[in-house]
Fold this sequence. Notes:
By secondary structure, the chain is an alpha/beta fold. The protein has helices at residues 30-44, 103-120, 136-145, 156-161, 169-186; strands at residues 3-7, 13-18, 123-126, 165-168. It has a four-stranded mixed β-sheet with strand order 2-1-3-4. Helix 1 (30-44) crosses helix 2 (103-120).
Amino acid sequence: MIEAPHYSAAGASKKAVSLPEALFDGTVNEDVLHRAVITFLSNQRQGTSNTLTRSEVSGGNQKPWRQKGTGRARQGSTRAPHWRHGGIAHGPHPRSYRLGIPKKMRQLAKKSALNARAREGALLIVDALEYEKPKTKDFAGLLKKLHVMRFADATAYEILWAQTVVVEIGALTEGATKQETKEASDA
């Protein structure tokens, strides 16, 4: 059973909490994690680099010299790739680097990333963030201190990249019950 440090909303340390086995079974699938990270990084690429081919370069609409009689090699255009100011042969053109990953593999990668962070001791549990009065200033101060993201929006890459993963205790129990009902429906 994996345990994680527990803190109050103010930051005071409490007794360690055992993590639910539905989410934190301790297994880390490195192959799936690798695929999820490669997919995430590939999807961040823009693919906007572009070069001009010989047909896209301006100019070069006539032969530089006549075909025969000069003693020089025949040339059809000054915009051929071997000429200065000519087009680029086999250069990059805009394309999509987008990769896909199956939903169950993405979920397994996220679970493996959480298990890896819990194993390292980089997963912290925090009490529910409740305030006496609904003040934006207090919540904005918290957001400045922490990088906050919904669990559904977090990817395996972001979980692995984060220095520390902070989970609200309510989200932990809610995620465990969802996982248990999912496993029961799959069986």
